[in-house]
Amino acid sequence: MPTDPLATATAILPLVGGPANVTSVAHCMTRLRLGLADPSRADEEALRALPGVLGVVVADGLYQVVLGPGVVTKVTAAFEGLVAGPTAAAELAARGAALRAERRRRNATPVKAALRRVAAVFVPLIPALIGCGVLAGVNGLLVNAGLLPWLTPALAAVASGFMALIAVFVGHNTAKEFGGTPVLGGAVAAIVVYPGVAKVTAFGVTLAPGQGGVLGALAAALLATYVERACRGRIPDTLDVLLTPTLTVLVAGLATLYGLMYAAGAVSSAIGTAANWLLVTTGAFAGLVLGGLFLPLVMLGLHQALIPIHTTLIEQQGYTVLLPILAMAGAGQVGASLAVYVRLRHDTSLRTTIRSALPAGLLGVGEPLIYGVSLPLGRPFLTACVGGAAGGAFVGFFAMLGDQVGATAIGPSGWALFPLLAGNQGWGTLLAIYAGGLLTGYAVGFAVTYVLGVPDRAAASTASGGPSGDPAPSRSG
């Protein structure tokens, strides 16, 4: 049954302390992210019990209500409307910004802060990557089947236009994130993909359009931001509107042509070479490690470092070979949750949570199962990682045989990744390998969890009719 966004938002608001306790409202692909003045006023158990709420996470100083893709956008809009009634939007933004800044100073390490800023550059691009990636996959199927030849050139143009100019969007977002003028960041980053750079020669080497890719665009826009900020502090106000943009584009543009594009091009090539070498040479082992460690990386926020790597591989090869392997972590999570469902058959509350969260888990949205099932129990989180490692090893093994399975976009996983599959083999082969990896992750995650992953005290408690819904005393296990 579809969720009523306004009803859900209205039910959530009093459970997080009311409008006066809310300092900021935002959302990502699956979560409503709330800044709360006093987090202790939130009723986490009541929130979890609300229809439509898939889980609750407290991280990075934010209270995060997991609602799922699509739904979260509508609920956030409704929630903002409710909060903005008694509280002016400007006041809410100011209070939220002050509290977020304080929490970041208190909690963020330099590495996490850097990764968060890199993610802020690339995450807004994911919807376009998904849309264009799906269209590219459909177009590839039509071309291979010889169907609709009058339509495929148009589909190719629609699917490829964004990727041809992705450097501009990266530059725009980089300047915006680091305090510069977004359009100046985009203008400098556009140099990377301008066809005229083929006429530029330096150090005896002629540039190629697109050399350096998204990494070059990020570096160019970051440099432009620092140049612009330096100019703002030195140029008189009467000349600022004329000289600052000119000097920003000139200095950062020349540095991009005569330095950054060469350096970023070398790094981008090294990323592509390293990824292919890793899978061809040590595919099964690499898949085991990547699939097994991805859930902990997500928990720590370190998976954000992979976003520019995925984007670089997509830009270079048309697909990222890493995402299908990392997606196996979700398969292990599904298998582990199914084992918990079978073992704890008397725990009606937990089984209800699993039933409601499984569809999202199968489609690659893992937070409800992680925070509602495996992490509170402890051991199932570890055995889910074992299942992910097995699925990753399966996909990696075929990479060693020369069958590369990739994805044309980042973001989706699980079953939702099927339309985005691409690689060096036919779509049937790609589908079979990826599906085999998912089945391996499901099976191993289930088997290991069933045998080793459910704490004896939890099984004993539910078997004897004890309390349900909280079989383990700790969220972290």
How would you describe what is shown here?
The protein has three domains: 5-108, Glucose permease domain IIB (Gyrase A, domain 2, 2-Layer Sandwich); 124-276, no CATH class; 318-463, no CATH class. It has 19 helices and eight strands. The chain has helices at 5-15, 44-49, 71-84, 89-107, 110-122, 126-145, 152-164, 166-177, 182-193, 213-232, 237-300, 307-317, 323-326, 328-343, 348-362, 367-377, 379-400, 427-453, 456-463, and strands spanning 22-27, 31-36, 55-59, 62-66, 201-202, 205-206, 405-407, 421-423. A four-stranded antiparallel sheet has the order 1-2-4-3. It has a two-stranded antiparallel ribbon with strand order 5-6. A two-stranded antiparallel ribbon has the order 7-8. Strand 1 and strand 2 form a beta hairpin. The longest helix has 64 residues, at 237-300. The protein starts with a helix and ends in a 14-residue tail after the last helix.
Question: What is the overall pLDDT average?
Answer: 84
* Rg on CA atoms, Å: 24 Å
Give the spatial strand order of the biggest sheet.
Answer: 1-2-4-3
Q: N- to C-terminal separation?
A: 34 Å
Q: Could you say how many structural domains there are in total?
A: 3
Query: How many strands in all?
Result: 8
Q: What share of residues are in beta strands? A: 5-15%
